[in-house]
Design goal:
Chain lengths: 396, 237
């Protein structure tokens, strides 16, 4: 016979009441756990998406003297001094010290061509790489009768170009028609959907053809690089790339990362507020149940005190009870929360990835549940311990 | 019968409830010897339970001193007083006051729960007293599976399991039929003969024959039992 046994027996006796108490804690813990799981899945999925969200860094040719002669009159000299970026630089990226982070390397040449008496910008690209890196660019119309292709799998046929929406409008051409670029014929393979940026005004062609057209064989204007992972050390990548490409300057693009953090930040604020609310309700259920349980047990506590239980013993009984309830609720809350995230999360948060059950959250779940139960029960426990035993036994 | 176990000097108890003051005990002075058995009688509201709870270290008097075995019990801290109750006192309450979710055996073990004994020692001690009160074969039953008299025996076993020198009982036979009540009284008598000091509040004058001295209470004071009897007989006549 121990204090533990007394607590256990009492729990078994008041099953309904204790189930009610547990329910409050279970809902609280389950909410927190499912939210944490969904948040983690969102974070990793957003990370995956960011890999597709465009380049993390851009490699440009280094312009010598740019810092020294920073004024307009010297512009021609500076251009003259620019060191060229060439096709030979691409393998250097794969061989760099940060190659393990590199996912997509998209080289391109940008230049102006004349069509219908006006200058238009043409970009020579590796279509698969460029369109994988920029998934927001999608085809609106396509030359063939086949269904519209996924651009990231596209092999652009020779002597073909893809037009941005406003370029197509300005040139007044339709898919399948021919246009003249610097007096050479190209077929309009497709027209892109409008994205509302400068990209809309561009003409895209195969890199080697544009190099020939612009008479800059082997030359590149820039290389856009995207890193593999969402938490890659962008700064480190920049430094690594600059080391292996000494004739270029590397710029990190952080917008994507900032955007991701903002989205997740908003979701975690929402989740935090929701969890806090549910936990508050759980705390109130525990408080209310324990207080009514104490008043129901007034006489029983009086007996314990009369036969020599100290105040500390009474508190111990109550804390063992809520502690046990806390442990069971923590485990059940963890299970329910994990399952809710696994099966409900994908619909709730529109996540494609699986949300796995993370067993590492079990201990925090139990600690949260036990901690909450014990903190909230402190007041009822003290109240029980302070009960006047003579008074408690008076009304028999 | 020469050594004083309980010494009560000039005890007063005033309850304050809802702005009203009730003088439950007025200047009680009383000694109870080791090995005595005493019945406390009096009308309802005369202060019997209050006196018992003060002797039981449960209810501090408003003024006056009470010593048990030379210990000024209300000078002890709350927690020390709980220890004192455990070691010195066995309570038998009206309506038994067993814990409903514990078996007879477990109920009897309760006062041992907070002592430093092995589980086996506790079980054996409880079993021994249950044999003593004649309940060995029913010790694994819950209170609601026992008759009133059996529950009373469990309550007595619980009161004596820790071998306290003093038993305090408040109307222990109040809810029992006459035959069962008499059996319980015989048990108290035996325990007293074995050396326990017994103090019992009772309404039933028949019970006094199992006990030694009778104390009569009236309006918070002690009155002489013989005088009371004489007055009663005059009234009857
Ligand atoms: N806790 C209390 N608060 C207020 N009044 C009390 C309290 N306990 C007892 N009394 C009053 O004190 C008087 C004596 O009560 P009690 O000792 O229970 O008498 P008895 O046991 O002889 O019936 C009664 O008037 C009762 O109402
Ligand atoms: Mg009474």
């Amino acid at each position: 016979m121990s204090i533990f046994r007394i607590a256990l027996n009492n729990l078994m006796r008041r099953k309904i009441k204790m189930l009610f108490l547990m329910l409050g804690l279970i809902v609280g813990v389950a909410t927190v756990i499912s939210f944490v799981n969904i948040l983690k899945a969102m974070e990793s999925e957003l990370g995956d998406k960011i890999d597709e969200f465009g380049p993390n860094s851009i490699i440009l040719p280094r312009s010598e003297g740019m810092d020294i002669n920073n004024n307009n009159t010297m512009n021609t000299d500076i251009t003259f001094d620019i060191q060229k970026l060439t096709m030979e630089d691409i393998p250097k990226i794969s061989a760099s010290s940060v190659s393990q982070y590199i996912n997509i390397i998209s080289p391109k040449l940008v230049g102006a061509v004349e069509t219908e008496q006006r200058k238009t910008i043409i970009v020579g690209i590796d279509t698969k790489k460029e369109f994988t890196q920029k998934p927001w660019l999608t085809l609106k119309q396509q030359d063939t009768t086949k269904e519209i292709q996924e651009l990231s799998f596209l092999d652009l046929p020779n002597k073909s170009v893809i037009l941005g929406s406003s370029a197509a409008k300005a040139l007044n051409v339709k898919v399948g028609e021919l246009i003249l670029l610097d007096e050479k014929e190209f077929k309009v393979f497709g027209i892109l959907n409008e994205v509302g940026s400068e990209d809309d005004g561009l003409i895209y062609g195969n890199l080697n053809e544009v190099q020939t057209l612009l008479n800059k064989p082997n030359e590149l204007s820039m290389i856009e690089v995207s890193a593999y992972c969402n938490n890659c050390p962008i700064e480190e990548i920049v430094v690594g790339l600059e080391e292996s490409l000494p004739n270029s300057s590397v710029t990190a693009l952080k917008e994507a990362a900032l955007f991701r953090e903002e989205t997740i930040g908003q979701f975690s604020k929402f989740g935090f507020a929701l969890s806090a609310m549910v936990l508050l309700i759980a705390a109130m259920v525990v408080l209310k149940t324990m207080l009514s349980s104490i008043s129901e047990r007034t006489r029983e506590i009086g007996i314990f005190r009369a036969i020599g239980f100290r105040r500390a013993h009474i508190m111990k009984i109550i804390f063992i009870e809520v502690g046990l309830i806390g442990i069971i609720s923590g485990i059940l809350g963890f299970l329910i929360g994990s399952l809710a995230a696994t099966y409900g999360g994908p619909y709730l948060a529109q996540i494609q990835n699986d949300i796995p059950i993370d067993i590492q959250l079990l201990l925090p779940a139990v600690l949260l549940s036990v901690g909450l139960a014990i903190i909230v029960s402190a007041y009822p426990a003290i109240k029980a311990a302070q009960l006047d035993p003579a008074e408690a036994l008076r009304y028999v | 019968m020469s050594e004083i176990l309980i010494s009560i000097k000039d005890i007063k108890k005033t309850y304050k409830s809802m702005g009203e003051e009730v003088d439950a005990l007025k200047n009680i002075t009383l000694d109870i010897m080791k090995g005595e058995s005493v019945s406390v009688m009096g009308h309802s509201g005369s202060g019997k339970s209050t006196l018992l709870s003060i002797m039981g270290a449960l209810n501090p008097p408003t003024s006056g001193v009470i010593e048990i075995d030379g210990i000024d019990i209300y000078k002890l801290s709350q927690e020390m007083r709980a220890d004192f109750r455990r070691e010195y006192l066995g309570f038998v309450f009206q309506q038994f006051q067993l814990i409903p979710y514990l078996t007879a055996h477990e109920n009897v073990m309760l006062p041992l729960t907070t002592t430093k004994r092995t589980n086996k020692e506790k079980r054996d001690m409880a079993e021994e007293v249950l044999i003593r009160v004649g309940l060995k074969d029913k010790m694994n039953r819950l209170p609601n599976q026992l008759s009133g008299g059996e529950q009373e025996r469990v309550a007595i076993a619980r009161a004596i399991v820790n071998s306290p020198p003093l038993i305090l009982a408040d109307e222990p036979t109040g809810s029992l039929d006459t035959k069962t009540g008499d059996e319980i009284m015989e048990l108290f008598q035996e325990l007293n003969q074995e050396g326990l000091t017994v103090l019992m509040v009772t309404h039933n004058p028949d019970n006094t024959k199992y006990l030694g001295r009778t104390i009569m209470m009236k309006d918070g004071r002690l009155s002489d039992y013989q005088e009371e009897l004489i007055r009663k007989s005059i009234n009857i006549n």
